């Protein structure tokens, strides 16, 4: 069997698996699908972020930082509980 024949066989096998999975998904009931979708969205929701506690008037003290880390390990420099959708990393 040549390399191209092997690749073609692998592609056809993956196609058949995907078609079988699509057939199984079509057999599920709409109520079951809606329940699982609702459960997934509830799991994705984040708890509300409490605003940082006010410091006792210490001048020059910076507010607490967000602390969100990206994949490379950098941390967000915005204030804790910021409303911006994006983070600023440094």
TrEMBL record:
Q: In which residue ranges is the amino acid composition biased (Low complexity)? A: 16-41
Where along the chain is composition biased (Basic and acidic residues)? 1-15
**Residue span of region Disordered:** 1-90
Q: Which domain of life is it from?
A: Bacteria
Protein name stated in the entry: Uncharacterized protein
